[in-house]
Every structure is written in C-alpha cells, then in structure tokens.
Amino acid sequence: MEEIKVPIMEHGRIVREEIEKVYSVSEYYVSDYLYKLANSAPVEYKKRVQYINIANSFDIETSLLKHQEPPRAFMYQAQFCINNDLVVFLRRWEEFQYFMELLRKNLFLSGSRKLVIYVHNLAYEFQFMKNFMKITDYFFRKERKPIYIESDGIQFRCSYFLSNMSLSKFLENTENVKHKKLDGDEFDYSRVRTPESRLYDFEKAYCYCDVKGLTEAIAQRLREDTIASIPLTSTGYVRRDCRQNMAKDELNKLLFIDTRLNSTTYKMCKDAFAGGVTHASIYTSGQIIEDVDSWDRQSSYPYELMYGMFPIGKFNTLSGIMPGDKVLDSDFEFAVDHTCAIFDITFTEFRLKNEASVSPVSVSKCKNLYNPVDDNGRLIYAAMVTIRITQTDYTILRDIFDWDKRMVTNLIFAKKGKLPKEFREVVMKYYKLKTELKGISGSEYEYMKAKNRLNALFGMLVTDIQNDEIEYRDDLRFNDRAGWNREKQEIEAALKKYYFMSSGFLPYQWGTWTTANARRSLYDGILTVPRDYMIYTDTDSIKNRKCKKVATELKKINKKIIEQCESSDIKGYALDKMGKKRYLGIWEEEDGYEKFKTLGAKKYAYISRKDHELHITVSGMGKKAAKEVGTLENFAIGNTFYDAGRTVSYYNEEEIHEIEVMGSKFTTASNVAIVNTTYTLGVTDTYREILDHADDFRKNGVHYIK
User: Fold this and answer.
1) Residue 237 in contact with residue 355, Cβ under 8 Å?
2) Crossing angle for the helix pair 444-461 and 421-437, nearest 10 degrees?
3) pTM
4) Crossing angle (nearest 10°) for helices 329-338 and 391-400
5) Tens of pLDDT along 540-560?
6) Which ranges of 71-133 does DSSP label H, i.e. alpha helix?
7) 8 Å CB contact between 46 and 229
C-alpha cells in the first residue's frame, strides 16, 4: 500500500490536498477486500443475469514511440477503482491478467454473474487490452468503437457513450464528484515512460483522479438507476423517458405500427434525410470582414419537434401512377401544400438565383448530374440534375433557385400533423429544466443532464433501422479486414425487428422531417440577409455583415414564433432564473465579431467583440491553434501550422511480444499510436476556382461559367 497526495479541485482550481491509498495487485488486502465485497455488495437482475450493483472503472496510461515506422505505443501504467473505494495501480499486462482472475475468483463472476467496469473512451483502451483477455461478448457501434466488451463475467463499458462528454467535462458536470480530472499539460504526455519509470507525485495523483473521479460519476448515476438498468448510451435515457410517456396513450403504439415503412419507403426516407446546412457564402469567403453580427436560433430541433408538421400515418402513392411515371403538376402542387411527401425531382438549367447566397443541395445526393458548378460540395448550377427530397425542401428550392423545366416521379405522401402530445411533453420537460436551472448555483449537474437529454432527442430520432452488424474476429486481425467483419442487415428482417419488438415506438421518418423543417426555418432567416451581406451559416446560426434590415426582419419572424408558442396546446417557453420567458425557436443576437474570415464549412477565424482576441474554429485543428496562427492575415490558404492540435492514429495489430525501451523489458501487443501532425489550410481546386469567379457570378449569375 502507498499513500499519495491528491489535489482536490473546485471551480477549476486546487483548494486542498488529501492523502489517498493505492494498492498493488499482489497485496493480501486486495484479495481480502474483494472476497468480503462478494458477500456484501448489492446485486440486480436483468434477463436472468445477476449484476453486482457497484461503481467501478479502469484506465491506462501509454507512451509513444513516434520515431518508429510505423509509430507505436505501449502501456506503462494502469489503474482500477473498485466499488468507488479500492484503487489498484499496476504497471504490466501480466498484472492486469492476474487482477482479472482475482476479480473472477473472489467475486464469483461468470456468464450469469457480472461485474461492470467503466472505461472512458473504451475504443482506445480496447486496442491495447484485447490481446490480454478472452473476449466472450461485445457490442460495437462501428469498427473499433465498442460500447461494451466482455470477458468471462467482466464487462467493460464505455462511459463516453454514456455521458457524450469528455472525461473532464463529465466529472466537472456531475454532482458529488470530488476528484476532478487534473491538468493534462502538466502531466506531459510527450515524456516516454516505461513500466519501470518512477512516477512523480503529480503523475500518480493524475492517474488516481482519472479512475476515482469516474467511479464517483458512475456512483451518482446509480442513485437513479442500477447497473442492470442504466442505459448503454446517453440517448438511452431519453428513449426510456419518451417510451414511458408515449405509453400513456395506447393509440401511440397503433400509430407507430400504422406508419410502418417497407423497404421502398424506408430507402426513400433515408435518401431524403439530410443534416444541417453548414456553408460559407462564395461572395465573402476568403475575405476579412469587419463588424460581423451573429444570430443563433434557440433550440432549433426541439422547436421543430414541438410545432413542425410530420407524416402521421402510412405513405401512399398516387392512384394509377407506376414507379418512374411523371406526376401531374396539379397532383404535385397539392402534395406539396397539403401533405408530407418525398419524391424524385429532375430539373434542367437549375441555377441559384442572383439574390441567393447559400445552396442547401449537397452534390453527393445528386443523380443524373450534368455540367454542375460545385460550391465546395453544394450545387449552385447544373444543366440537369435529379434529387430526392421532401416537400419541405422543395419549398426552399422554390425560394432560392430558378430552373427551366422540372419533372416529378416516385412520389409518396402521408397525412401531415403534429407529433403526439405525449412526445412533445417530454421535449418541453427537458427544455424547461434546462432553462430554469441555467446559472443556478448548485444545480449544475441537473442543468447539464437536462441540456444533454434535450440535445439527445434528435439523435434518438435518426437512429438507422438497418444498422451494420459488426463482428470482431481474432482470426481476421492480420489481414486486410483487421479483425472486423461488417455485414449489412437484410432490410426486411431489420424492418420486421424494428416495428414488432416490444420497445419500438418512434417512426424513422420523423427524423427525416425534423432536419427538413429545421432547414426551412434556417432559410427563413437566411433570406432576410442581402446576398452580399451573407457570410456563413451552420445548422441554426447566421453570420452576416452588420445590417439593420436583418435585425428588423428577424424580429418579425420572432414575433410569429412567440405567438405560436403562446397559443399552442403546449406552451413553447420556459422561465429563466430571472423569471423571463425564453421561447423555443426564436433568433437571438450573439456577441458577434470585430473581424471574421472563413475559408469554407467548419473553417473560420475571428476576433471577438467580447474579448477582442483571435479564435479559430477548424475541423482538424485544436482551439489552442489560435496562438500559432496569430493573425487573421495568417489564416490563409496554403499556410501550415505545426502546433495545431491535429493528430493521426496508427493502428498496429501485433501478437503478444516483449520489447525493450530505455533498458526496461516488458510485454506489449496491439496498440494505437496517436501522433501530432501539421495542418495546412487548404481548399479543393474546384472551390478555389469558384472563389476566383465570385465576381463573375455576382454580375452574371452562377450559371455563368467562364
């Protein structure tokens, strides 16, 4: 046993140190503790399996050999925390295997009696530990992304999937967590350590807090759940709440069955699904723009779930119309105005209007595409194109595109209406909790819980019915498939399972219309911005040159939304801590920017009006990259940054073997090496050409091709 000093943090600073005990795997106390725990720990049952109802965690620390080819990594330190109490340090994989056997033996673990151990970002640890355990069960969301893995009664679960937060944020935002994650910069991940390296006091404390803090967070979850009932993912909480509330009215189950999709309508709904519009205007991209306003639409998706129109009932086809037949204009216009519909529509001389700035049409979803003009993945002109969309998306195209001819085929339609009241009640429950608790001292945990569940509502709706089945096979590890066998479920079997399993209650197509309705609301905002004032949009936000017209028009939109929220069957507002009404779906002005520059989607830099400092938002660059970039002028195409926070991962599939590092010999096996790398700001040749012709497009229209 060793005593170590562990810093205790509150509000981001160390307030005191406490003495904590850590043990090695071979100490008698550890074995005796586990044996006594077997007789005293509470248990819960699920499907005839007994789960020991205690909080446990596991974590490893690794060193990187970045100069090898390919780079490799190895474990030099690991730690378990059992029952939110016993912390065990180990340095070698042999100790890991010994402790696993100790757990099985002293806790009497088996396939029918299990111990759950949480690991934050299990995907990382799994790549190191998989060779040193017999895998008896697993569930992977994607290749290399386990939600849980099991080894003869010991089940490792991923707490990242449970929390949908980094470990630091998870601990920070969970009530009754005393051991917060310590500063990783001070820990210095670049230092090469081996199982024989001496660990300094802060390093030991860092390792201790990672597992102790995680078990404290899990123990908090166990105050309202058991290990047997706790969901595997953050979305599971929301799904459970919604299912229980929807079950209050038996008609909701009948509605779910009545909306059943077949293989054709499912594919059409899936094809028509699209996410948020994230894009930079070609007319301002690459320029440093001064005095920029920023508008954010509050709780965009929850608003659509409350007040949007969705398909209610089964999809129908027009009488006498065969697949591929042209739909009459009168039938099409009726479907657009009075139903929820999906269809294929073909345009000729399809072109963005001169006054429009941002296209919602993704080139990747286009068919029969001839002579396109591609604005960084968004279509702004085509001599001919076919796309599959909802009637809501068509209303957007009607506002911002011109065309010579159109032809509609393969139209399906359903009655439209609001989502069931029982579902909408859950939406407002989360929104009210989030709003009422925001900024209330002592309610941080409940606030974050409500916020995360509100955000998870959308994720629950767009869960794919036809999931890939991921199989992990050890005998595949050394070929091109690298241990993973992916098979697509047969669609009819997947649909049957989805609609007739006892837990099913949400029509898949509601997710398709959630994003479609949100895009319509976004474009209501975008259309208030004059073309040359528009700069950037991302799902539920707009950034534009300062313009009084925009503020005036958005206030008009807000007035209509507020009237809707006030007059609806379920009021669409909540009271904040000051007693002020906060409405769903309204546009609110943010701090904005002194200067702003974008190079495309998810790629911009700005000087904030609030703190007058440079900030960077680039997919693939860390937030700290702003220090190296330095100025907006340096945020330019072709510039390379070396401390950008960008990494590349090397997955190494290796048998168990011995290596020697810095005079230390130890066992290792498969691993993943995460190496820092440079980031070069760039755009595609096609996008660069589009930007070069922005002035031509401004004068002559986007169909003008020089």
Assistant:
1) no
2) 150
3) 0.91
4) 110
5) 999 999 999 999 999 999 999
6) 93-107, 122-129
7) yes
